[in-house]
Design brief:
The chain is α/β, with parallel strands linked by helices. The chain is built from ten helices and eight strands. The structure holds NADP nicotinamide-adenine-dinucleotide phosphate (NAP).
Length: 236
């Protein structure tokens, strides 16, 4: 599989690392052009391109950029593709948005409207970038991950996903399983507020059953204090 990534920052590098370990081809991109990505691409062992080139390159595409930049993306090259959306809305960085703050809209729906025809799946937004590689427990015997574990195993962390295309959600769940995570399917993008910033499952290491309970326990407007999810925690 070819994974195109819009972004070359913390999330992009972590997901690229796991995709490459599992035998996929990766192209990263940024806002300044591939000439600024030579050292990074060489150290990861992937390709670098423009954002447009990464969108065309990917069988699947990961969007891992500041949320405000999502509002300027163009979707022509992404129509029909599974687009994994890792972006979170942080008002201090991205600007105030009353509907997102009230959770009557979600950042995933904003991206889906920006990219007509793209099969957007919210994923990787509810895990700290620094945890993505060390918390992975890939099931593949051929995986170069330091730890391995089967789907549903007690040492496996779960990540919540949401999207309006059920087949796209299954494809993302299969990718997560391959790189070392269980998926907990929250349903359509309109439900993705359940694992946005400050919700009970946001950036907390949880097994699948605990994540499913956290999604159910989420209540609109009841966010935990910003940053309270950052401390070290055991898988629960
Ligand atoms: N860091 C975390 O722990 C974490 C966890 C979950 C979710 N997230 C979310 O995931 C997203 C990415 O976070 P991050 O920590 O990886 O950010 P980051 O380290 O700041 O990297 C952002 C990347 O996006 C690139 N970029 C900006 N505009 C772009 C555009 N129009 N096209 C292509 N690339 C563009 C930047 O390139 P330039 O340097 O050229 O501007 C940079 O490579 C954010 O929405 C964040 O809220 C982050």
């Amino acid at each position: 599989m070819k994974l195109g990534i819009l972004g070359a920052g913390l999330i992009a590098q972590a997901v690229a690392t796991l995709a490459l370990k599992n035998g996929h081809e990766v192209m990263v991109s940024n806002s300044r052009g591939p000439q600024t990505l030579g050292d990074l691409a060489a150290s990861l062992g992937c390709q670098a391109g423009t954002a447009e080139e990464a969108a065309v390159f990917g069988d699947m595409v990961l969007v891992a950029i500041p949320f405000h930049a999502c509002r300027t993306l163009s979707g022509a090259s992404l129509a029909g593709k599974v687009v994994m959306d890792a972006c979170n809305h942080y008002p201090g960085r991205d600007g105030a948005d009353a509907a997102l703050d009230a959770m009557t809209d979600t950042s995933g729906q904003v991206l889906a409207r920006q990219l007509p025809g793209a099969r957007v799946v919210k994923v990787f937004n509810a895990i700290m970038a620094r945890d993505i590689v060390p918390h992975a427990r890939a099931s593949s015997a051929s995986s170069a991950s330091s730890a391995s574990s089967a789907s549903g195993a007690t040492d496996r962390r779960a990540l919540p996903i949401a999207g309006d295309d059920a087949a796209a959600r299954r494809q993302v769940a299969a990718f997560l399983d391959e790189i070392g995570y269980d998926a907990v399917d929250a349903g359509p993008l309109a439900e993705s507020w359940r694992f946005e910033r400050g919700m009970p499952g946001y950036c907390i290491p949880l097994r699948a059953a605990s994540m499913a309970r956290a999604l159910q326990a989420a209540q609109k407007g009841q966010r935990v204090p910003d940053g309270s999810w950052r401390g070290p925690r055991e898988l629960a």
